[in-house]
């Protein structure tokens, strides 16, 4: 499934409503990443099912321009998240850990994609895309200055970020694991 800014309709999935606010709709456009666009593998960590975004990572298909963002922790923190996510938030290479406000995070994503080709954001879980899209709206009526984005939701049977990641439940390591799985298994 690809979300494309050029096609403006409203998806029915309530989790994708934030994408609709940006003008994305579901479109069957095949494998957009095969059109010469750089793929960025996305993973997020959030405060329980349907909870607030805690961290986000974008790992490029090629190169080392990884982006890892953490947001201030919500209150209260879901007990499972407190045990399985929070202790691992800082387990990233030095210089990549950045806690930001939502506005700073949206600006950082826009800066990350500035001047590049049309990126394709690849995720294996719909909530990752929904939270990413919501982050691009840092305030009422505001949208980060991102280029046109395509989104691909991959169904990857047999892949589990928790089983394949070097640091499970860390968005950066989970996004790296997804990239590795796709590059070696799916293509």
What is the topology?
Elements lengths: L1 E3 L12 H5 L3 E3 L11 E8 L6 E8 L6 E4 L8 H6 L17 H12 L6 E4 L2 H10 L14 E4 L7 H4 L6 H16 L1
What do these coordinates show?
- The radius of gyration is 15 Å and the shape is globular.
- It has a seven-stranded mixed beta sheet.
- It starts with a strand and ends with a helix.
- The chain has one domain: Ribonuclease H-like superfamily/Ribonuclease H (Nucleotidyltransferase, domain 5, 2-Layer Sandwich).
- A hairpin with a 6-residue loop joins strand 3 (39-46) and strand 4.
- The protein has helices spanning 17-21, 79-84, 102-113, 126-135, 161-164, 171-186, and strands at residues 2-4, 25-27, 39-46, 53-60, 67-70, 120-123, 150-153.
- The longest helix is centred in the last third of the chain and has 16 residues, at 171-186.
- With 187 residues, the protein is of the alpha/beta class.
- Helices cover 28% and strands 18% of the residues.
- The chain has six helices and seven strands, in the order E-H-E-E-E-E-H-H-E-H-E-H-H.
């Amino acid at each position: 499934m690809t979300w494309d800014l050029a096609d403006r309709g409203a998806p029915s999935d309530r989790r994708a409503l934030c994408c609709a606010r940006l003008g994305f709709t579901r479109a069957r456009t095949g494998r957009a990443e095969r059109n010469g666009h750089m793929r960025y593998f996305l993973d997020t960590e959030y405060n329980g099912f349907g909870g607030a975004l805690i961290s986000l990572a974008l790992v490029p298909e090629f190169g080392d321009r990884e982006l890892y963002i953490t947001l201030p922790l919500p209150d209260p923190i879901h007990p499972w998240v407190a045990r399985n996510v929070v202790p691992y938030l800082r387990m990233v290479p030095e210089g990549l850990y950045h806690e930001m406000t939502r506005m700073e995070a949206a600006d950082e994503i826009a800066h990350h994609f500035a001047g590049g080709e049309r990126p394709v954001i690849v995720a294996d879980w719909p909530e990752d895309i929904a939270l990413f899209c919501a982050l691009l709206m840092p305030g009422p009526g505001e949208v980060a200055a991102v280029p046109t984005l395509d989104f691909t939701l991959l169904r990857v049977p047999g892949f589990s970020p928790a089983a394949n990641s070097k640091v499970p439940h860390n968005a950066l390591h989970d996004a790296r694991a997804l990239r590795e799985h796709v590059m070696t298994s799916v293509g």
